[in-house]
From TrEMBL:
PROSITE patterns: G_PROTEIN_RECEP_F1_2. InterPro entries: GPCR_Rhodpsn (IPR000276), GPCR_Rhodpsn_7TM (IPR017452), Olfact_rcpt (IPR000725), OR51/52/56-like (IPR050402). It is found in: Membrane. The chain crosses the membrane at residues 31-52, 64-90, 96-123, 144-166, 205-230, 242-266, 278-298. GO terms for cellular component: plasma membrane. This is G-protein coupled receptors family 1 profile domain-containing protein. GO terms for molecular function: G protein-coupled receptor activity; olfactory receptor activity. The keyword Mitochondrion does not apply. Residues 45-296 form the G-protein coupled receptors family 1 profile domain. PANTHER family: OLFACTORY RECEPTOR 56A3, OLFACTORY RECEPTOR 56B1-RELATED.
Length: 315
């Protein structure tokens, strides 16, 4: 037991209870079926894409390495969030240890930042491919991808590390019921009897600085790509150029749109059900992960052919 200056007494919290969608147990079970299907689809599709890229020599190129990084991030994000949510829905396993909660919080924030940064690097890759095609082999090399991967990991790890550290150092006054399915920063921090202003400000600053700067650079890349494409006069050149970055643009649009909707629901939370932001947060971790390899697999001829060759070898 610990006494505070404000007169409150707090007890050490060893675990939390994730209290999500308790208003309707029937709705929990009905939602768990499509969620589990999306989870297995995301894991399977990303796994196939990774194996195809690894085994097919024709896909050993920088663009496909970047796509593999994205698939790996999607797999980790799905495994961090969805199995625990399904365990709550199916078996009422709401308890999560103190350290596991903050580890989940860190992985979610870190890997989301890594995905955003990977999209930025992929946008630069498409910019060089379309605007400077002759210089592309000398700029976008395997060494470039390796350096980009180190940058993505280092930047995201460093800037998101304070989020779980700040939250874990708070005093929780014996309160342990999190009104969420996952350990988000503010869902956990609001249980504290301490002032959480710093937590809120840091989360807000990092979200807009990291994700905002990435989206601005992505938008700039595509503006330059569009300007270069419109100058092309050769027949079919515009369609060919746009098709090379169509998959990437679709995913970025979906990624940014669902984040924007999530932010808007938080802003107007008094007018929407408190379950809506929770639902969007869960779906963001699984729908996007499932969509990523499918969009690239359908729209990228080389990946489609690589999967077909592997299937023929398997048969």
């Amino acid at each position: 037991m610990t006494a505070h200056q404000n007169g409150t007494i707090s007890s050490e919290v060893s675990d939390f209870l994730l209290n999500c969608f308790v208003r309707s147990h029937t709705w929990q079970l009905s939602f768990s079926l499509p969620l589990s299907l999306l989870f297995f689809l995301a894991m399977g599709a990303n796994g196939v894409l990774l194996i195809t890229t690894w085994l097919e020599a024709s896909l050993h190129e920088p663009m496909y390495y970047l796509l593999s990084i994205l698939s790996l991030l999607d797999i980790v994000l799905c495994l961090t969030v969805i199995p625990k949510v399904l365990a709550i829905f199916w078996f009422e396993l709401k308890s999560i240890s103190f350290y596991a909660c903050f580890l989940q919080m860190y992985i979610m924030n870190c890997f989301l930042a890594m995905e955003s940064c990977t999209f930025m690097v992929m946008a630069y890759d498409r910019y060089v491919a379309i605007c400077h095609p002759l210089r592309y082999p000398s700029i976008i090399t395997d060494q470039f991808v390796a350096k980009a991967a180190v940058f993505i990991l280092a930047r995201s790890s460093i800037v998101t590390m304070p989020i779980p550290i700040l939250s874990s150092r708070l005093h929780y006054c014996g309160r342990k019921v999190i009104e969420n399915c996952i350990c988000t920063n503010m869902s956990v921090s609001r249980l504290s009897c301490d002032d959480v202003t710093i937590n809120r400000l840091y989360q807000f600053a990092i979200s807009w600085t990291v994700l905002g700067s990435d989206l601005i650079l992505i938008f700039l890349s595509y503006t330059l790509i569009l300007r270069a494409v419109l100058r092309l006069k050769a027949e079919g050149a515009v369609a060919k150029a746009l098709s090379t970055c169509g998959s990437h643009f679709i995913l970025i649009l979906f990624f940014s749109t669902i984040l924007l909707v999530f932010v808007l629901t938080l802003v107007v939370k008094k007018k929407v059900s408190p379950d809506v932001p929770i639902l969007l947060n869960i779906l963001h971790h699984v729908i996007f992960s499932a969509l990523n390899p499918i969009v690239y697999g359908v729209r990228t001829q080389e990946i489609k052919q690589g999967i077909q060759r592997l299937l023929k070898k398997g048969c």
